[in-house]
Design a protein that fits this description.
This protein has 83 residues and is an all-alpha fold. Helices cover 61% and strands 0% of the residues. It has 5 helices and no strands. Helix 1 runs antiparallel to helix 3 and helix 1 packs across helix 5. The protein starts with 5 loop residues before the first helix and ends with a helix.
Length: 83
Amino acid sequence: MATQDRSQVVQKVVDIIAEQCSQQPENISEDSRLDAIGADSLDRVEIVITLEETFNIEISDEAADKIETVKGYVDYIMEHMSS
C-alpha cells in the first residue's frame, strides 16, 4: 500500500467506524470516543479486523483494548504502517 498521509488515514478510520456503528461519518472526529459513538465490544472487534485488512497491519489484543478514541486507532496505524 502506498504511504498515506494522516488525513487520508483519519478519513478511512472514520468511515470504517461510522459504518460499523451505524453513524454518519460527519458526526465522528479524531477526538471521538468509541463508547460515545456507541461501539460495543463486538463492534470494536469488527473495527480492528477491518482496520487490519484495510491497512495491512496487525493490531494486538492488548493494543486494541487500550484504544479508546478514533485518534488512538489513527496513531497506532500511522506508527505501524509500512514499518
